Amino acid sequence: MAATRLDEPFYARDVLTAAPELLGKLLCRRLPDGSVLRRRVTETEAYRGEEDSACHAHKGKTKRSATLYEPGGRSYVYLCYGIHALLNVVTGLDGQPQGALIRGVEGMPPGPGRLTKALNIRVCHNGLLLYESELLWLEDDGFRVPGIEALPRVGIAYATREDQERLWRFRQLCAET
Length: 177
Description:
The chain has helices at residues 8-11, 15-21, 112-118, 161-165; strands at residues 4-5, 26-30, 36-48, 75-80, 84-90, 98-105, 136-140, 148-151, 169-172. It is α+β, with helices and mostly antiparallel strands. Strands 1, 2, 3, 4, 5, 6, 7, 8 and 9 form a nine-stranded antiparallel sheet that branches. Strand 5 and strand 6 form a beta hairpin.
């Protein structure tokens, strides 16, 4: 099957549906030299609305979180700890702040900051329309993950205990060899 770019309707869904379905998709990044890096997504993490104390939208719409309130299909790239740019895929409808953090891709050391560094994804890539952008997008080549593991999210000690315990981190299970 030839790879096809994920379209706008893919993103216009609740993050708890879209985040696990991003597993196995190809994260594509056109580099300054014109070449395209494609890396298969292996781990995502869902953040869902103002009611989620781990979500950047928890305290309402701010300059930083404004992209989360846009219709799904945009990149939400922000600086974490003033050091690492982290890539999220905005999902849902206009005014529903949701995003799926891309935590891991094949062929790169684990960690969302490491993958953005390796793919040269920076804060200036915030707000790109992933279904139209020639710099950053996702593709489906028909690959299906052998299984999905749902785990608690990590790095959110500031969130309520209930939100810390939600099984909203999704990881691809390895195929048996």
